[in-house]
Design brief:
The chain is of the alpha/beta class. It contains 15 helices and 34 strands. A hairpin with a 4-residue loop joins strand 21 and strand 22. It is elongated and about 135 Å long.
């Protein structure tokens, strides 16, 4: 529908009469001349008269159009794309305005970001609401964390809500926002219910599965859906750091961190010589160049030397583009300290492959390509008097029959003061001796040995298998999902049953398939005691030859010695929860976010597990962890929080797909530019074209001046 912003200026069209009057006044009659060659002159006058009349009529038309287009341009005409029927405009309406606040809305190819344009458009919608209309404003990056809004007709408050809204660092969840909008409109009493979605139309935000049933909600509760493409329908380009993975390689003196970096080019134009810089602890240490084909990714490796026992934070950075949020990705490196482990072999053999500690030693320090930060030393029971336990971090008693009384007292003191001991059992272990001599350290009293057979498939007593009792436990958490699922492949032919009553504060880490405890930990003073109710060699089980034996043993050492900070901290995405086990002697920790805000975190309990949980991961960056203002060996000094790069792909969704999603819901889609030349009204867009008319007026003026000189 054609309308005018200044209709009063249409009176200027009456100015068309001026050139007509001038044309009539200046109308000349042909002059007669008597001459001998009269026939020649008559023919000449006829030709001149025809040219004269044509020229005058052209000038008349040009001058009339000049005044007509000038009057029209001053009246500022515009075409209004209607978003509702005439009946809708004359009755009260209920409206939900959804502002896409995901991090892709930070994209800016002009003086302001898409998000600021969306806020401007939302304010124009609110300003255009009638007195009896009601509205609510919500966002769509995370419905889980936003405060529910109610319909209201207080424009001032609605504008304040829009003013206070800020772009997030999360991905788009349009389906969740539509769910919330439908829930709000379902309670409205008006018959006209509308949703306004202000978004950049990137495909990532649309969940096709939701619309399989969700379109029914829209048809029942929504009169009309208005989608405003704030990006003006443009094809968006973006380059992002999509993956960073550090890996530790040990050497005799230092550690080398291998940092794998992947950069993705989400555009149809290749990228050449793109610089990528590696920063460690705030200092630039390395740089490389990427050449990435259109709509492709490239991965490069960087090597950084770090020191043992130190924690590092860093990031990978590329030059800023239109979407700067994903041009930096963070990581941390927790360089492990050397752990000295003493392995007391209670059943040494001439053939080292049959010794009690053979597989354990190889797991703790595989050697060759897999150099470990754990340094095992082996001794027999006869050599134990020449060894001081305090020189080690952890003691393994592997099928040890007896210990001298003075060494038992030394071991008790060692654990009380922060050391750790691990008991693994076998044929030489006497339950009564252990229960009497080592009761201050054992998690449970030993009961009896139980043998299981697999010689016959008809046997009722098949071998036992292993399973994780607590998947969130640090020893279990190091395992991949595949490794956890294959724990059941371990076979145990003989185990020690234990008394069900614990001797202290105990926790079962692994259990057998019949729910009998397999690996139990106990807090003893400042240290830990661990009991494995089977043998650590292959006499009773095939556990030592399984692929997950090595990570479990190494992680067990790190955990009980307080060096659990996992060489590479697991990446946390924005708004994900950081969760970490709580040591017995820590009551609070402090977490400082990337903006310098510190939060005191109290421990929580879940199924007898004590842990810390931090939810305020709102912004990407490096988060620091301290206990009583200092670093704690059982916590990583830092952990990284990054964005979900699924939002970095700015591929647009086609309007035909959206129409199909809506399943019959009345829909209007507009690629809108929010500026002085464009207004956003309730589902309507005003596209002014007075500038084109003004340009045409100048063109006519130029042609008129040219014709009038002839």
């Amino acid at each position: 529908m054609l309308s005018f912003l200044n209709p009063i200026l249409l009176l200027g069209i009456l100015g068309i009469s001026i050139p007509i009057i001038i044309h009539l006044i200046n109308k000349k009659k042909a002059v007669s001349h008597k001459f001998a060659a009269i026939d020649f002159l008559l023919e000449t006058n006829k030709r001149i008269l025809i040219k004269y009349k044509i020229r005058q009529r052209i000038l008349l038309i040009l001058r009339a159009c000049l005044l007509l287009f000038l009057a029209l341009s001053l009246a500022k005409p515009f075409i209004k794309n209607s978003g509702g029927s005439a009946e809708e405009k004359n009755i009260p309406t209920s409206n939900v305005i959804i502002i896409d606040d995901s991090f892709s809305m930070r994209y800016s190819d002009r003086h302001e970001s898409f998000f600021l344009s969306a806020k401007t458009a939302a304010k124009q919608i609110v300003d255009a609401l009638k007195k009896d209309d009601e509205a609510a404003v919500i966002t769509c990056s995370s419905q889980e964390f936003q405060i529910p809004q109610e319909l209201e007709n207080d424009k001032k408050h609605l504008l304040n809500v829009i003013d206070r809204s800020q772009p997030s660092f999360m991905t788009t969840h349009i389906a969740h926002a539509l769910d919330t909008a439908v829930e709000i409109l379902a309670t409205a009493r008006t018959s006209v219910k509308r949703i306004f979605l202000l978004t950049d139309m990137t495909r990532n935000g649309w969940d096709p599965h939701w619309f399989k049933s969700g379109y029914e909600k829209l048809r029942r509760h929504v009169s009309r859906m208005h989608i405003l493409d704030i990006s003006e329908g443009k094809t968006l380009k973006n380059i992002a750091v999509t993956y960073v993975k550090p890996q530790i390689t040990l050497s005799e003196k230092n550690l080398e961190a291998l940092i794998k970096v992947t950069i993705s080019n989400f555009s149809s134009v290749p990228v050449k010589d793109l610089p990528a810089s590696i920063f460690i602890n705030g200092k630039k240490l390395s740089q490389g160049f990427f050449n990435i084909e259109a709509n492709a990714s490239e991965t490069k490796e960087f090597f950084i030397t770090v020191e043992k026992g130190k924690d590092y934070y860093g990031w990978v950075e590329i030059p800023e583009d239109n979407l700067f949020v994903d041009n930096k990705r963070y990581f941390t490196i927790n360089a492990p300290q050397t752990i000295d482990a003493l392995l007391i072999d209670g059943d040494p053999k001439t053939n080292i492959y049959e010794s009690e500690t053979f597989y354990l030693e190889k797991a703790l320090n595989p050697g060759r390509e897999h150099i470990s930060s754990i340094k095992p030393s082996i001794c027999s029971v006869h050599e134990i008097n020449n060894i001081t336990f305090a020189n080690f971090n952890i003691i393994f008693l592997c099928n040890v029959e007896t210990l001298p009384p003075e060494k038992i007292h030394e071991l008790e003191k060692f654990v009380q003061e922060g050391g750790s001991v691990v008991f693994t059992l076998g044929n030489k272990v006497n339950a009564d001796y252990y229960n009497n001599a080592l009761s201050s350290l054992l998690p449970h009293r030993l009961h009896s040995i139980r043998t299981f057979s697999s010689n016959s498939s008809l046997s009722e007593e098949q071998p036992l298998h292993l399973k994780a009792t607590e998947r969130v436990h640090p020893v279990v958490r190091i395992l991949s999902e595949t490794q956890i699922n294959t724990l059941s492949t371990v076979k145990f032919y003989r185990i020690f049953y234990i008394d069900p009553n614990p001797l202290g504060s105990c926790k079962t880490i692994f259990s057998f398939s019949n729910d009998t405890p397999a690996l139990i930990e106990r807090q003893v003073g400042r240290g830990k005691s661990v009991l494995f109710t089977a043998s650590i060699d292959r006499d009773w089980t095939d556990f030592p030859v399984k692929s997950f034996f090595l990570p479990i043993m190494q992680q067990l050492c790190r955990y009980v010695t307080g060096s659990i900070s996992e060489e590479i901290s697991q990446e946390i995405l924005v708004k994900q929860v950081w969760r970490y086990p709580c040591p017995y002697d820590i009551n609070t920790i402090e977490i400082t976010n990337s903006e310098g805000t510190q939060t005191i975190v109290q421990p929580q309990f879940d199924d007898n597990e004590k842990y810390f949980e931090y939810k305020e991961t709102d912004t990407p960056g490096i988060y620091a962890v301290t206990a009583n203002g200092r670093l704690h060996p059982q916590f990583p000094a830092y952990f990284p929080v990054n964005i979900d790069t699924a939002e970095s792909n700015l591929e647009k969704i086609d309007q035909k797909e959206i129409t199909a999603f809506m399943g019959g819901t009345k829909l209007s889609m507009t690629a809108v530019r929010v500026s002085k030349e464009s207004d956003v009204l309730l589902g309507e867009t005003k596209k002014t074209f007075w500038g084109y008319l003004l340009f045409l007026t100048f063109c006519i003026l130029f042609v008129e001046s040219f014709v009038s000189r002839k």
